[in-house]
Each structure stands twice: as structure tokens, then as C-alpha cells.
Write a structure and sequence with these properties.
- By secondary structure, the chain is an alpha/beta fold.
- The protein is built from 10 helices and 12 strands.
- The chain has a 6-stranded mixed sheet with strand order 2-1-3-5-6-4, with helices on both faces. A 6-stranded parallel sheet has the order 9-8-7-10-11-12, sandwiched between helices.
- Helix 4 (about 105-115) packs across helix 5 (about 130-140) and helix 9 runs antiparallel to helix 10.
- The longest helix has 17 residues, at about 240-255.
Amino acid sequence: MIDGKTKLVALIGNPVSHSLSPLIHNSAFNSLNINAVYLAFKVGREKLSTAVEFLKDVDAIGANVTVPYKEEVVKYVDLLTDEAKEIGAINTVLFTDRVEGHNTDGKGAIKALEEAGVKADSSFFIFGAGGAARAIATTLAMEGAEIFLSNRTEKRGKELVKKLCKYGKAKFVPLNSEYLYRYLPEVETIINATTVGMDGKCLVPENAISEKHVVMDIVYSPLKTELIKRAEKVGAKTITGDRMLLHQAALSFEIWFKRKAPVEIMETALKGVVH
């Protein structure tokens, strides 16, 4: 029941109408009788700093940040965790007497990979260099992974790879079929860490996936992206985007409330709507 003491937790991004985060978190709040509500706000780029300041002013508990602001919002927080600083992007904000920036995307992705039997120190081909891709690639690199990375904007991709190289092996691969057919067979796991897939498209060319691959897509709407369909068709193990969504949400919850997240409740709520 919402009353005068109800606290706010928010999602800020653009778009946000597809987000399942309000469902996940409000189910958690209800199960633990936490007097809070999680709402999604579509925010224009020119209003991003205003949105963060507003949430601080109204004494919000925290916020999640989604595309396309995970990197840009960094300049509007007072303090970054060491991990968030290294990644250069945040997806979770905690409001105390200051604005703290955290990142749960990388650890959430690793949890999704580990539950599928994928070791963090194995080999990965990652598509993307945005906020989520930076978190996943950096966190995996810090765990000793070998990373191959491709991105539509080569400059951004190469800059990220250069950063990853300080942890170990990392290589930029141009986003064209000739190079993808050459390097994709060398890795154990393929990860789409872009929004491509929400539109029915796929960055991985036909016949580039084998039954030996594990294929992960961070897109969860639709759950069966074209990439996941192609992977299933050849018998590869797949990890759908709802798994990372669940685990990063649980970690965000624990940052805000300093208590263990009701993961089973959150997962049940999620299973009721993903398709």
C-alpha cells in the first residue's frame, strides 16, 4: 500500500516502456513488506542531470540506469566504486548523503554464465562497446578471460580492447563476415551485449555458430532473439537475457537495502511474463 512514507526507487533511460525491472523489484518489495515503489522514467538526454538531481532531492533510495545513459551518467555521481570506475559505466545508483555509482551488470552476467556452466576465465566473443558491454567485458577480463570484441563503431571498440589488454588477452575484430567466420570458432562463448535483437536482427552471420558454443544474449524482449534461435537450431547451449536481468537486479537490490535479495520471488515474477 502506497502512503506518505513510501520511498521511491527509479529506472531512468530511454526507452523504458519494455523494461521488466519494475515488475521484478516491486515483487521483491511486496514479498518483504518494504514500503517502496519502483517506477520507470523515460528521460531525454538533456534532462539526465536534472533527473538524477530530482531523485536525490526527493530522497529516493536508489535508481537503475539503462540504455543509453550508463556511461554518461557517471559524470553526475559524487562517488564511484572501484569496479564502476574501472568499467567506466554504472547501472545502479545509491542515494545517501551523496550520489554513489555502482555497476552490477558485470557480476550479474557472470552469475548467468556460471549457472550455465561457463567459467569466467575461458574465451569469449563479445559484441558491443556500450555500457553493458563494457561491464561484461571488463569484469570477465579481470577474471582472466580471453576476449575477442567487435563493435559497429570501431574507434569505441578498439578503445575498450586497449583497456582490456592490461588484464590479459584481448583483440578487436572488425564487424564483417570474413573476420567473424575466422574468429568465432576460436571461442567457447558468444555474447551479444548490444540492443541488436530487440529489432529482430542479428550480428552473428549465418552458420557461424556451432553446437560447441555457448551463446548468450543480454536482450530479453523478445526472449528468443534471432541469435538465440540460430544457436538453438544448431544445438548450442543458450543463455537468454532474463538470466542476467535477474542477477543484476538482485545485486542492485542488495546495494539499496543492505539485505539479501529474494531471488526466488524475483525469478517467479520474471517467469510469469517473459516469452
